[in-house]
Specification:
By secondary structure, the chain is an alpha+beta fold. The chain has 20 helices and 29 strands. Helix 12 packs parallel to helix 13 and helix 19 runs antiparallel to helix 20. The radius of gyration is 28 Å and the shape is globular. It starts with a strand and ends in a 9-residue tail after the last helix.
Length: about 725
């Protein structure tokens, strides 16, 4: 067990909650204080991400990137979670199960945590990251830091590149306050004097078009080739007077408005694509939930904006820097300031010579017939998935290809290969989930592109997101039909495969292939739920089977036998599973949970969850694998899948969990994907019953162990970095 740091490297839950007075009712349910609120738990995950920005183990530019990720996470948190709570509050401030908190209570907690966290984010930026970058001559220059030549260049840049696309809007009876786009950068300008029509204008709004870059690199001839930049906000601020000739600019202050960005799509829509396109436009102008201003913004301007947007003071966030750090992106890579690149390996089964009978080209189909092949991204390359599709697209023996797509793009090789297969006469079906949050527009474009190529495009089931990761290839071999399958825990997205940890299984197993075939029939046709042999399938069998697996462990524990559960998922929020885990803990089952983000279960509470531990690993890659392990009296069960243990995944999405049956692959997933993470004593955090997360540190004499670095070394044979801080 790694030592916990109690000196401040922690994420606070309810620190005052030292004793949980929980109850178990006659119907088997537990009292509200047995659970952590999911939105508070999600917010604590974001704080664990923020903590990476001050971790000296990460290269400096990666620490800056963690600040950017935190900003992006917080944007979505306000757009979806806070917006949802505000809607509930407007409807009725009533406590909901299972946590028993009213929306107003949750919003007050969130406001306290987020104000403190965002202040810390900008402190890290201004006191840690930017000064360290400046030592390496990477600078974000302020207006008063430019020399004469640089100032002259900036003025020309404003006149030639910025001013032509700006539209200043005066605030007067003829020009009401403009309807501002969600998360757009805007400037509130206070003025003195008369305009061209002789009117006294005191205020104007200047929206910054999204077509303009937020960070501008100064020319090499002005910096000696150094990475010196200015912010667009500084350029506009310095020369905003050019927009108001004959008037005096008294002040210019940037602000940013966050709106509700969740989509409200009815279950009875006739055309889901058309309905989504309409909703996407509404997303840009949803209800207002947050206002960001800079710390030097006058109170009079703040009061005006709060009144205009009908927001309260606790929805105001003063920031000491740019109001949108997500646009502080960088495209430079200097030695020692980014993670060292590594080669994404191809599994040996796909590297060795595998040839079809009578053919010279290497065949992935031959390799898959020899046995199951497992890939573990990003340590393994994404290319085998792409190569399999291209082989299928060009193989005269392939008759049909079916695939689910959750997040993708028209420039994706996956999409290009599917289109090529259709043009080559294959029967190609793509089940595209249009409602993948914030990728809806991209997925509509993918659907249109594939349809033009001749692909049969299906949008899944209205009311149930298609989240399963499935590929099915049907091939005629010696007058027989054989199916080849890929199943994954992550999306068919090459970019994600380099940043997310995910498992993928290539198999020609007849039972699994038949199961996948039946699921595609469900998705594209009609009929009763498929009777599957090996796969667990939400919303039909997955939840019930998981409950039954836990029951089996409880039975073994009560009989005095070894009972052990290890679960690695992104989130655990589903109440019935939590209650069942509480029951199992009380029956003596050892339960180890590895959760990336949300956890509504309270571990290590006497009498309630003594035998449950919860940890989270945050590092270079986003943890995304879902693995379910049950000891089962020695006849061990191990599944990988697309589903987290959440209501939406188990009851409102199409999900698939697949067994790992090959003994060698089973051992790899168990040792590398589970035990390895339980041994992490550097990047891991542990959760206490009061909701507080503590960063783990090696005990005296204990060797530092970082799970992701171990996988890089084990799978890719790279040298481990020095883990000492």
């Amino acid at each position: 067990m790694a030592a916990q740091d109690n000196s401040g490297d922690n994420v606070n839950g309810d620190a005052a909650l030292t004793q949980i007075d929980w109850q178990r009712f006659d119907d088997g349910t537990y009292s509200a204080n047995s659970y952590i609120h999911r939105d508070i738990s999600l917010l604590h995950f974001h704080l664990r991400v923020l903590a990476q920005a001050k971790d000296p183990r990460h290269p400096l530019l990666e620490r800056l990137f963690f600040l950017i990720i935190f900003s992006s996470n917080m944007d979505e948190f306000f757009e979806i979670r806070v917006a949802g709570l505000m809607q509930k509050l407007n409807h009725a401030d009533v406590a909901s199960t299972p946590h028993g908190m009213r929306p107003s209570e949750v919003l007050r907690l969130i406001a306290g945590i987020t104000h403190e966290a965002i202040a810390e984010q900008y402190r890290i930026l201004n006191e840690d990251v930017l000064p360290e970058l400046a030592k390496r001559d990477i600078r974000y220059l302020k207006r008063d830091e430019l020399d004469a030549a640089q100032s002259a260049w900036m003025k020309r840049y404003f006149i030639e590149q910025v001013m032509p696309v700006l539209t200043p809007i005066s605030i007067d009876p003829a020009h009401p306050f403009p309807r501002l786009v969600n998360k757009s950068l805007n400037f509130m300008v206070s003025l003195e004097g008369k305009d061209a029509f002789g009117r006294d204008i005191n205020l104007a709004v200047v929206p910054a078009p999204r077509s303009l870059p937020r960070v501008i690199r100064l020319p090499d001839e002005l910096t000696g080739g150094k990475e010196h930049h200015v912010m667009l906000s500084a350029v506009i601020h310095e020369h905003v007077n050019e927009l108001f000739p004959g008037m005096t600019v008294k002040g210019c202050h940037q602000f940013r408005l966050t709106r509700n960005a969740d989509l409200n799509l009815a279950d009875d829509v006739e055309d889901i694509a058309k309905a989504l396109e309409g909703e996407l436009e509404n997303r840009r102008f949803g209800d207002k939930v947050r206002l960001e201003v800079t710390t030097n913004c006058p109170q009079s301007i703040i009061d005006f904006l709060l009144e205009e947007f009908e927001l309260h003071a606790n929805q105001l966030y003063r920031v000491n820097g740019p109001v949108n750090l997500t646009r502080l992106l960088f495209d430079f890579n200097l030695p020692g300031l980014r993670y060292e690149p590594f080669t994404h390996m191809v599994p040996k089964a796909f590297r060795r010579e595998s040839f079809e009978k009578g053919e010279k080209s290497r065949s992935m189909f031959t390799a898959m017939r020899r046995g199951d092949v497992l890939v573990h991204h990003p340590f393994h390359a994404f290319s085998p998935i792409v190569n399999l599709l291209w082989q299928a697209a060009n193989d005269p023996k392939v008759l049909a290809i079916k695939q689910t797509l959750y997040r993708s793009g028209t420039n994706s090789e996956i999409v290009q290969a599917l289109a090529a297969a259709a043009r080559n006469g294959k029967e190609v079906t793509a089940v595209i989930e249009l409602r993948a949050r914030f990728d809806e527009a991209s997925n509509i474009a993918v659907a249109n592109f594939l349809q033009e190529a001749g692909v049969v495009v299906v949008y899944g089931i209205v009311g149930y997101k298609t989240h399963a990761k499935l590929m099915l290839i049907v091939r005629r071999e010696d007058e027989h039909i054989r199916r080849y399958v890929h199943l994954g825990t992550g999306n068919y997205h090459a970019g994600n495969a380099k940043a997310y940890t995910d498992y993928g299984l290539f198999t020609a197993d007849p039972d699994i292939s038949e199961d996948v075939h039946k699921i595609f029939q469900e998705l594209t046709g009609m009929g009763k739920p498929a009777n599957l042999k090996k796969l667990l399938h939400a919303p039909f069998t997955l939840h019930d089977q998981l409950m039954a697996f836990i029951d089996d462990e409880m039975t073994n524990a009560q009989a005095g036998k070894k009972a052990h559960i290890i679960i690695k998922v992104n989130a655990l929020t589903e109440r019935k599973l939590i209650d069942k885990l509480y029951d199992a803990s009380q029956a003596g089952v050892k339960i180890e949970l590895i959760l990336r983000s949300m956890c509504c279960l309270r571990p290590q509470v006497p009498g309630l969850s003594d035998n449950i531990t919860v940890r989270s690993v945050i590092g270079r890659f986003l943890e995304h694998t879902r693995v379910y392990y049950f000891y089962n009296g020695g006849d061990e069960r191990l599944y990988c899948g697309s589903a987290d243990w959440m209501d939406r995944n188990l009851f409102h999405r199409v999900e698939v969990a697949f067994p790992i049956e090959d003994k060698k692959l089973f051992k790899k997933v168990y040792e590398q994907g589970l035990i390895n993470y339980l041994q992490d004593n550097v990047q891991a955090w542990e959760l206490e019953g009061n909701g507080q997360w503590y960063r783990c540190h090696p005990q005296a004499g204990e060797t530092p162990h970082i799970a992701q670095d171990y996988l890089m070394a084990t799978i890719n044979e790279v040298s481990l970095p020095d883990t000492e801080s």
